[in-house]
Amino acid sequence: MSSLHAVTAIPNTPSLEQHAIQYEDHLIHQALDLLVHRIFKGGPAMQNPSAVFDYLRLQLAGEPSEIFAVLFLNSQHEVIAWEPVFTGTIDAVTVHPRVIAQRCLIHNAAAVILAHQHPSGYTEPSLADKLITQRLKVALEMFDVRVLDHVVVGKSEPFSFAQAGLL
Fold first, then answer.
1. Fewer CB within 10 Å: N-end or C-end of the chain?
2. Which DSSP string do the residues of 47-95 spell out, in sequence order?
3. CA–CA gap between residue 24 and residue 27 (Å, rounded)
């Protein structure tokens, strides 16, 4: 009499590399949660621009396409909301001032910090970056919304229009 033996497949077990990636992802999410708590809690959030830069870097640096985002602030410069507003391509994003103005009015924002990333990793702003920043500044002034900064995120330290004297 012959006996049949069932062959049981051993499920794929994650490799050490997959475990490391999962652990890193977990750490990144924890860091984002801590920064969100620090930035979005009530109080003078904008007194710590390095925390804002870190938050923007974590939110935007890994994106394969340019994303233009806005931090909406109240009159005390406390963060009301964070929104990625436009998504572009690997080297450009189209920004519509009308949409940014609408979002400011919806959030009842008194000020904003604009942000986008360069997937190339270089944080030096392009001429287009400088032009849209000035265009947004003028457009939002009509609604009494101040542009406090425009931050360009890449591989190195974020570029701040305010720190560079470009606002």
1. N
2. G-HHHHHHHHHHHHTT-SS-EEEEEEE-TT--EEEEEEEEE--SS----
3. 5
* 45: CB partners within 8 A, 6+ apart: 38, 39, 51, 52, 73, 77, 78, 79
CA atoms of 53 and 75, how far apart (whole Å): 20
With 60 as the cut, is the pLDDT of residue 117 above it?
yes
Question: For residue 61, what are its two tokens?
Answer: 């640096």
Please check whether residue 103 is in contact with residue 147, taking contact to mean a CB–CB distance below 8 angstroms.
no
Enter the pTM of the model: 0.75
Q: Give the Cα-Cα-Cα angle 130, 88, 133 (nearest 5 degrees).
A: 20
